[in-house]
Amino acid sequence: MNETNSEKIEKIVRDRKRGHTKLSKSSKGYRLFAELDQYTFGDGALEKKQKELIARGISIHKNCEPCMEWHIHEALKSGAAREQIIEAPEVGIEMGGGPASVSARFAMDVLDYYSQK
User: Fold this and answer.
1) What are the Cα distances from residue 11, in Å, to 4, 58, 72, 75, 87?
2) Do 80 and 49 form a contact (C-beta atoms < 8 A)?
3) C-alpha distance from residue 76 to each of 4, 53, 102 (Å)
4) In angstroms, rounded to a whole number, what is the distance separating the alpha carbons of residues 2 and 7?
5) Low-confidence residues of the chain: pLDDT under 70
6) DSSP state letter for 53
7) Helical spans, DSSP H, in 27-47
8) In this structure, what are the phi and psi dihedrals at residue 69, rounded to the nearest 5 degrees?
9) End-to-end CA distance of the chain, in Å?
């Protein structure tokens, strides 16, 4: 890993902790969101580990670096194997490309539509 990314990760962790502390003290809405987060990522029909892996894929699709840091760390703490964490973003990559392929197919239909006129 290069030093720049290591520093970026450390900054994300610091900023999240600082922001969480400030908002927890001053915002009821944020506290409710934090409760929702705890509930959502708790074990249910899906285990926390599975939910973290899902979030890992979504964070790739959304290009949310703080989300990537958080959900990778949480997935590791929940017992996810390195291989699972590596495989999860493949779903996010496909979901980024999948909708683009749908748009490309529609664009071809638009081209055909106007070509027939």
Assistant:
1) 11, 22, 16, 20, 26
2) yes
3) 22, 10, 34
4) 9
5) none
6) H
7) 28-40
8) -60, -50
9) 55
